[in-house]
Amino acid sequence: MAYQALYRVWRSQRFDDVVGQKAITQTLKNAIIQKKTSHAYLFTGPRGTGKTSAAKIFAKAINCKHSVDGEPCNECETCVAITEGRLNDVIEIDAASNNGVEEIRDIRDKAKYAPTQAEYKVYIIDEVHMLSTGAFNALLKTLEEPPQNVIFILATTEPHKIPLTIISRTQRFDFKRISTQDIVDHMGYILKEINVDFEEQALYVIGRAAEGGMRDALSILDQTISFSDEKVTLQDAMQVTGSLTYEMMDQYISSCVTGDVEQALETLENILSSGKEARRFLEDLLLYCRDLLMFQQAPKLLAEKVGNLTDNFKELAGQTAAEKIYQMIQILSDTQNDIRFTNNANIYLEVATVKLAKSVKKSAVISEAVQPVESAEITTLQQQIEHLQKELTELKKNGVTAKEAEPVKTTRVTSNKNALRIPTELVYKVLNEATKDHLLNVKNVWDDLLQMMSVTQRAMLKASEPVAAGPNGLVIAFDYEIVCGRAMDDDELQLAVHNNLSRLVNYAPDMICITKESWPKLRQSFISQNKDTSGDQTNDDQSVEENSHLLAGEEPAVEVNNLVVDEAIAMFGDELVEVIND
Ligand SMILES: [Zn+2]
Fold first, then answer.
1. Region labeled Disordered — which residues (predicted)?
2. What value does the mean pLDDT of the chain take?
3. Of 200, 225, 241, which one is at a domain's C-terminal end?
């Protein structure tokens, strides 16, 4: 015997079998018992919530001679014929495929004739919102002058697409999404009937994935059964629905909450390499965060809804401030927007992971007073160096010797702590000696380099790109300011790039971090500066590589610089100034 899908075999045949729509089925039964049926019904609601099943049960109940309490007997010739879809007086139409005016006219003509076998002729029009305007008008005419003993049942998932003139002539029933618990109970009942063993938690995973639709739930259950060996396990259900265990989510989220970037990224990598799709994972993460919030407010309600909450989850919900969860939800939904049109969803997810772990960490260690002092000092120092370097550039440009220059001002520069400081002079230094070949060398080994890095380092570099390179320096542009700032401060990362590159390309450039956003401007200002000193070389429209190549030039401005370099050494000491000769 050919295999029949569960949702067909287990389609409800009595009103009492329709899951999760008690109010509606009771009202319909009462109408039949009291013989107060309407000539037109509108069943609305999400897919798989029982609309067409209820319509067919209604067609049987109203025509069954042995109906008891408004339920069909399901045994008489009429009931069986309707169940098997071969009673001429019960006509099912799928408007998605029969949307022409002709078909509805046909209905109108035929509806005039009295039923032949049954007492009532019942038209069930599924997806009725798909009818054309002309067809709706034809239908309206029929509904305005309803023929004797004819009942229309219109079913739709999109009631807002149905003309009000039609709606006002029907009795409307809104089918609700079926609760996860109801779906789980029903699946459990079916599995027991067909003697298939199962783990209770597997059913909750399927129930959640079905989002309130019994037909979807039974389809997923079908797939899971064919996937399983004898027993429907939680693991099988996860595989089929692509959902994650709460345990895995627990691990990921708690790493983020404790600010353990490394652990969070490692968990993420495991999750993604197990075949999880990035978009789906983001949805699961959002759901998880929402569950955390819900659990804090109404633990019982959530327990009923989800069914299988882990101890870790409860612990996390107890420990994490609602503020933090809101923050995480914000980062996650921003990321959801970012990945909508990209092929690199995994990279965004990795960046989001760094953000999640970092943002939480920042707010968690706010009381550590030592660090801000240190970094303030560094900022001041950095600003002083920058200031000196600026003057150096001026000197270089104007050809004035250092001795004539004014003493360096040490006045404090008010800092903008939020803005990332781009090391302009360091970038210029690299550009001065950059060549296309050096850049190509680095680009050729970039993937290998990433493989040599730790998980955290790799994630940071994945959202970056080398844009200029010379024998001693390498400019890397990052997609995100936050990652760029982190890379700048990360000595280990810089050292790792330096060392690993030395193994791959036989020289060891230092890494200069900038944002992608700042790159065009940096390049442009370098070009115009170069134009001032050496005239005819540049063309604004040339590509980055060509610029670097051209500017880095066959004839670097070493001679011009020598005097300046001497002065610089005098000013900074020779440890700070590296003199570069090709
Ligand atoms: Zn019957």
1. 529-552
2. 80
3. 241
Question: Torsion-angle region of residue 411: left (phi > 0), alpha (psi -120 to 50) or beta?
Answer: beta
Alpha carbon of 510 to ligand 1 centroid (Å): 85
Number of domains in the chain: 4
User: Ligand 1 centre from 150 Cα, in Å?
Assistant: 19
| Residues 363, 525 contacting (CB under 8 angstroms) | no
Distance 548 CA to ligand 1 centre (A): 86
What burial class does residue 212 get, using C-beta atoms within 10 Å of its C-beta: 0-12 exposed, 13-18 middle, 19+ buried?
buried
CA 102, CA 124: separation in Å to the nearest integer?
A: 17
Tokens read off for 327 = 């923050």
148 and 218 part of one domain: no
Q: What is the CATH number for 234?
A: 1.10.8.60
Domain with 261 in it: 246-364
Q: Which of 59, 57, 24 is nearest to 43 (CA)?
A: 24
Which bin fits 307, alpha (ψ -120 to 50), beta or left (φ > 0)?
A: left
18 Cα: distance to centroid of ligand 1 (angstroms):
18
Residues of the chain with pLDDT under 70: 1-2, 98-100, 244-246, 304-308, 360-419, 531-582
Paired tokens of 513: 């971090």
* Residue list, CB under 5 A from ion ligand 1: 64, 66, 72-73, 76, 79
